[in-house]
## 1
Amino acid sequence: MSIFLIAVGAILRYAINVTVEGVEIDTVGLILMVVGIIGLVISLAVTFMSDGERPRRPDDYPTRRL
């Protein structure tokens, strides 16, 4: 989702030359890019900061089927 927001923001910021009264398309594109970058940084931080290990309980292991 973050990459999508960055892409849409970049398109609005750099590729669209439409003027809408009351809305700055360039500003909306910049806001979307910033939000996308913040989301991407948070996602990567959560992914790489977690060690992925959690205490195992005996019932966490798969059962053997015969």
## 2
Amino acid sequence: MSFAKADLPFPYNQDFSGIVTRIKGKRPTTRAALVNSLKVAAYLKAGATLFERNLGVRDATAAPADDERKPYWSGIRFLTERAVIREMEQNPPPFLQLRGGGPFRATWATHDDYTNDLLSFFFHAMNYDPQYGAGLQTRGDWLADDDSFVDAIDRTTYHELQAICRMPLFRLQLIMVASAERHDGIHQAIANNYEGALEPWKKIYESTFAVRGFQLRTGVTLDEIAFMLAAVTEGFAVHQLGDPGAGISGDDPRENLLGMAVLGILNSYLEPVNEPSGLSLREAFETVAQRARPKR
């Protein structure tokens, strides 16, 4: 049975123009056709599978592969040309299965070229939701519809932290950020990843604040709130990954530290629409700080 690119699962059925840019081909028309070929999609699938297998949540009961190094080894050394070729031979339908290194070397001049194209694809905004995989559990409905806004924040942040920690994309981002200055295109790829992650959340924040009767204080924007909440979430996720016993997420949504931090940020930067103070947070806190200062 033969397949077309449209038969591939999302996001492999999307247009890779401007994402995959380093493939071989003397003529522009040849390169343009190859970018959106089943062959390129299959090689991207093989590399993405290696990312997911090596950077995803490990099954503690699974036996290690014969050539597997210690589980805490760093970097992406698992993404060798040989590993990609071997993974290509085992691609699931409807992806192509090609044997040997010939097809790979006919598509990319070097393994570095393939790695850069794979990273651009893996970090692209189109890849965020498929990896996130918890949209129905955490996005939107709870924050807007739950009787208690506070309980909804606890519940949402609890599941969001778990979702982030599961994502191979997040773990790969941590590796790449540490060496971003030495990799052309990584900054832009990570920027695309943030765009894919934050745009849906900004819409949720905007609609939730309106439904709950809140507005942003003077001096802060929706983009800034989204950046702050993302930074806090990622910071706790790094701590949770590095020290799972620290109690970051807790055993119950009301015990998770991310929820406490988000509640603090929203309490500071939101105000009721019908009781606006007109003050920025700096101005409001400065007033409180002056009143609280002990008199000499």
## 3
Amino acid sequence: MEELDPAAHFGLFLNRNFLDAESCARLLVEVNSSPTTQAPVYIEGSEGTIHEKVRKTTSLHPSDETISAMWNRLFQQKPLLEDHFGQDLTDCERPQFLRYKEGDFFVRHQDGNTKQLDFDHLRVRRISIVVFLNKDFSGGALKFHDGPTTFDLLGQAGLLVAFRADMFHEVSPVIRGERFTMITWFR
């Protein structure tokens, strides 16, 4: 019987060395001392953007210089992403940084869906990007769904994973430690 290659089945783009260990360490130092807010989630027809039964995580706000440098680095992936996904992409959103503490999670969802008409920024998202900044945590898998088939991607520091924004995915609860990621979306 042929083995299923989960990355191929889900059409994932993986760059295992997007950031080196030193870059991840520098980012972790900065984001750990950055201002924080509760991470929002956009639900059509609901008031407010904080819904802790859907998403529980913290947004970290490093310097504009760091965000700009990471945006430039992410944007350099554009030709590779266009080739992999067979799509012409225009730009990418400002990167966001997230910390998932023990018990934090994000339920099954899509990052982009043309039916989410209330939120223009969600409607135009085509490719989602997650960059793992650390690996010293348990749980917190990036879980992909395709009907009855699922795939738990366990992050490694420096790994960039890209996937179609309309793909159903979730972040399973962190069991131990803290999970740090940088995220963005190409349009």
